[in-house]
Write a structure and sequence with these properties.
The protein is α/β, with parallel strands linked by helices. About 40% of the residues lie in helices and about 10% in strands. β8 and β9 (about 235) form a beta hairpin.
């Protein structure tokens, strides 16, 4: 998406193209860092009672200096700055999902402080987890609004931290697409848990509300219907495949990590919709158990991950259970071989 924006030459899109180019340069460095092995211990899937969140919000004031000026601490009053207060609330909602649904004590499983910086850079079109804290740009105002507006994006980026501290999936090819998919899964669950939405009620959109009214699109990605999130004359059409029949082989985007993640994303949504009820319950437990089991190799493939989710469903709910059957059926639907 950013590559397409960076390639625009129309005078009216000059500012957007420049902002996209700057964001791409930063993302390239971030992806290189994510590709490095992370020597961290794998926490157990079930832990002692989690503690309360420990949030701190900083303001970079349109610079790239981290963390920036302190503007809000845990239990401090609202600042009146929408980005700072959205970040504070989003960190809290994310902490609540992991603590209450999965008994996980923050991102690292050991009570990690949740730090975030808002107003990062000028017209910065991204939000990211840098390995120790969250960072949010304000968007360019033409295509993207501020990145704190989407709770699923906040949950998505923090989930990169959870993956970092558990499976440490390599950020390339199918393992990288699984890394991105884990973030979409738990980003969606953060939003659904906060809104108390059932799987049937949820939109299954990632980044809903980020686009300005000028964009023909609902969100960055659709988990339920990959390839349908946007279709815009500037952004182009959502390129995500919804099954292995249309798997994208590319050297761009670290081997298509943001594109091919649509396949495991759809598998998770199929499980949740098949079982009904709340997606953070049985489906979320199966995916969380798989992610934190210590059984996934860093270079995990879709097939290896699919088999691991089937094994988790059997471990948690029994062979032949509705949960077990729903997981198998979902992977068969998206054409991932078990």
């Amino acid at each position: 998406m950013l590559r397409r924006l960076a390639a625009q030459h129309e005078p009216r899109l000059r500012v957007i193209a420049r902002a996209a180019k700057e964001s791409l340069l930063h993302i390239k460095n971030l992806q290189a860092a994510r590709s490095l092995p992370v020597p961290v211990p794998v926490p157990t899937a079930r832990q002692a009672k989690p503690g309360p969140p420990k949030r701190t919000i900083y303001d970079a004031n349109s610079t790239e200096a981290l963390p920036g000026k302190l503007v809000r601490k845990e239990k401090g009053p609202a600042t009146g700055d929408a980005a700072a207060d959205e970040a504070y609330d989003g960190l809290g909602e994310t902490h609540a999902l992991y603590a209450e649904a999965f008994s996980r004590n923050s991102i690292d499983g050991a009570g990690l402080k949740l730090d975030a910086t808002v107003h990062y850079g000028e017209l910065y079109d991204n939000a990211f987890w840098n390995g120790s804290q969250m960072v949010f740009g304000d968007g360019d105002g033409e295509i993207f609004q501020r990145f704190t507006k989407s709770l699923s994006v906040i949950g998505h980026e923090l989930a990169h931290g959870v993956t970092q501290y558990t499976a440490a999936l390599a950020y390339r090819n199918q393992a990288g697409a699984l890394n991105e998919s884990m973030s979409d899964v738990f980003g969606a669950l953060v939003e659904q848990y906060a809104k108390k939405q059932s799987a049937a009620e949820a939109s299954w959109l990632i980044g809903e509300g980020l686009f300005t009214d000028a964009v023909q699109g609902a969100a960055l990605r659709s988990m339920k219907a990959p390839g349908t999130a946007y279709d815009d004359d500037v952004l182009g059409k959502d390129p995500q495949p919804d099954s292995m029949d249309s798997y994208v082989r590319t050297t761009a985007d670290n081997g298509g990590v943001h594109i091919n993640s649509g396949i495991p994303n759809r598998a998770f949504s199929l499980v949740a919709l098949e079982l009904g009820g709340n997606a953070w319950e049985a489906p979320g437990q199966i995916w969380y158990n798989t992610l934190t089991s210590g059984s996934l190799p860093a270079t995990c493939t879709f097939g290896r991950f699919a088999k691991a989710t089937v094994a988790s469903a059997e471990e948690l709910f029994g062979a032949g259970s509705n949960e077990h059957d729903a997981v198998r059926k979902a992977w068969e639907t998206v054409k991932v071989k078990l």
